[in-house]
Write a structure and sequence with these properties.
It is built from 5 helices and 4 strands. With 141 residues, it is of the alpha/beta class. Strands 1-2-4-3 form a 4-stranded mixed sheet, sandwiched between helices.
């Protein structure tokens, strides 16, 4: 099984793919799941908005869309991330681009591991888990 990183209509990101893959696998294992096929697709706002309209019928920009292909305890999916949104959000929240990218990457994995963010309580729990996993990644550097 594999974790892969692709780009659609943006420049390839210089990210530590092997380290990120290990981190993602660790997160899945923590929640008693195996890692299946997980594809990260980095793209522009417009590319992701088109996906949002086509598949979710939402006509707005977003930073991430996760398509869940899980089977039993095997986590698999396609995770589309707008690097434009990540960049804008990093500026807005006054954090480094890579830190915001980590947040969005792990956000998608948390969704694939069964966590939701539909209610305020769920959003708060999701943010706590994102922070936990970001700190976990940084400790491994």
């Amino acid at each position: 099984m594999a974790i892969r990183f692709f780009t659609e209509d943006v420049e390839e990101l210089k990210i530590p793919k092997l380290k990120l893959s290990g981190w993602i696998k660790e997160c899945c294992a923590h929640y008693k799941h195996q890692t299946g096929e997980i594809n990260y697709i980095f793209c522009s706002d417009e590319y992701l908005k088109d996906i949002n309209i086509q598949y979710l019928k939402h006509n707005y920009y977003t930073d991430i869309i996760t398509f869940n292909y899980n089977e039993d305890a095997i986590v698999s999916g396609d995770v589309y991330i707008s690097t434009d949104r990540v960049s804008d959000n990093s500026t807005f929240y006054k954090v480094e681009f890579f830190d915001e990218l980590l947040r969005v990457i792990i956000h998608g994995i948390l969704h694939l591991n069964g966590f939701k963010d539909d209610s305020e309580k769920q959003k708060s729990e999701m943010r706590t888990l994102e922070n936990f996993w970001i700190e976990n990644f940084k400790k491994s550097l």
